[in-house]
Amino acid sequence: RMAEIKNGRVAMWACMGYIVPEYYRFPGYLSPSQNLEFKDVPNGLAALSKVPGEGWAQIGIFIAFLELFALRQGEGRLPGDTVGCGKLGLPVFLVGGKSSPCDPVANERSLNAEINNGRLAMVAIVGMISQNGFLGTTGPSMWLPGAALPQRAFEKELGVTMPMRYWDPLGLASDGESEAFQRRRMAEIKNGRVAMWACMGYIVPEYYRFPGYLSPSQNLEFKDVP
Question: What's this model's pTM, rounded to 2 decimal places?
Answer without folding.
Answer: 0.62
